[in-house]
Amino acid sequence: MYDKKVIEVFLKNQLKLFPEVVAEDEQEAAEFLEDVCATVCKNKKEVIEYLEDAMDITGMSEEEILSSEEVFAIGDGRYLIVEG
What we know:
Strand content: 5-15%
Radius of gyration: 12 Å
Helix content: 40-55%
């Protein structure tokens, strides 16, 4: 479900969301993302639509939403959302 790029971005940036490392390698990261039902969105619009349903983002700018700790930019236009 989670491709190599998504897993690598999560591994590299997991301390953005969590106070300590939750995954040491790609396998642990993939299992963790599956356990928490992390979501991959194909673009900014999908991120905003997803978060409108999942949390209160009223009054937040697009930049604030995309830079929130739950949102990880994959670098190819996609985003990973991990609710901690």
